[in-house]
Amino acid sequence: MNEVLALAEEILDASLSQTRPRFFAFVGSSGLESAVLGDLLATAHDVNMATTAHAADLIESQTVQWLSSLVGYDGAEGYFTSGGMISNLTALSAAREKAAPGTRMTGVRDGRLCVYTSVESHASIQRACEVLGLGSQAVRAVSIDEHRRMRADELRTAITQDVADGRAPMAVVATAGTTLTGAVDDLQAVSAVCRDLDVWMHVDGAYGLPAASAPETAHLFAGLSDADSVSVDAHKWLFVPKACGCLMVKDKNALRATFAHDSGYMLHDDQRVEHSVDATLEYSRPFRALKLWVALKTHGRQQYVSAISKNLALARILADLIGEEDRLELLTQPQLSIVPFRYLPWNHEPNDFNRRLVKKMQERGRVWVSDAVLDGRVCLRPCIVNFRTQEDDVRALVEETLAVAAALD
Ligand SMILES: Cc1ncc(COP(=O)(O)O)c(C=O)c1O
User: Which domains does the chain carry?
Assistant: First the structure.
């Protein structure tokens, strides 16, 4: 056994680890040690959260409460999921049943249901609509303002027009931290539209919502408390290992109306017993909450908030460092911890150059950054969500970019 583990360690160590402080690509991981131990315990305990799971159920609901209070969505109920994709799909399933009761039985019969979200929301929204039978044509891509936030005026017009045309608005999905730039939609403005026009409001905070706990960015999330449902991934900016998504809702009955069922192999005769499977998409469901419970209890709210604030500060330092370099162009001021920028080459076409730059940097492996396209411009898109990342690491990213670019230009 020891030999096998040593072998596995050797193999994995020769490859990329996303938990290292200079991994800036996509939305990375931290693999927080306390949470790793919590996860180990949960795996060994191996309870199935589909049916009533006693202490594990209590821990799950306590963790949801802590999480909802951390981000300012107080009093929510909810469940842990495998991540943003499933949380968003679950929320939209409930919104569909609310907008068109009985659809879970009849299926989607006409093309009336519509979902509204910004052009820069995550692809999981479109995928959820495809899976739910609405089709991606049901997604109304609302344009963004100068801060890359969904335009609430356009949202209102689109919904009003659809209603006039005989369509049925099913949900609005606001993003609290887009994957491309970290922009936070104006939740207050979106909520006013949803309230006036009586549409389900979902907030996809899979990446960015933890920043609602930090004093410097909390104001960006005003209006969150009006949402009907909210997604957040603890395996992103709450540092715990995958998978640890959470879907929080104001009214659990909306989930029950969508998923409750009676099966001969899982009796529902005792009304005091609640099976989570009656309110979740998944059947067998691992005990994902424990790792976050252990981490929150070990480090406490304040340490969490400081770690998130530190990531936010590093993003601003990175933006300043980029601003000091003639050959680097900051493409948008960071709202949270994503800092898209590009190198301006002397002798080459910028898009092709920046693509090659990222590839070369990845080959060298000193820092790891991914590329992205922002308004047609290929850029580097560092995202800082690791509590281990320090100022030296951010400086190393700039130095490595300049060094590799100079050699290529
Ligand atoms: C805003 C947003 N929503 C949803 C997702 C999907 O999350 P997951 O990969 O955990 O399913 C992501 C992933 O990066 C995201 O950034």
Answer: 2-27+298-408 (3.90.1150.10), 47-287 (3.40.640.10)
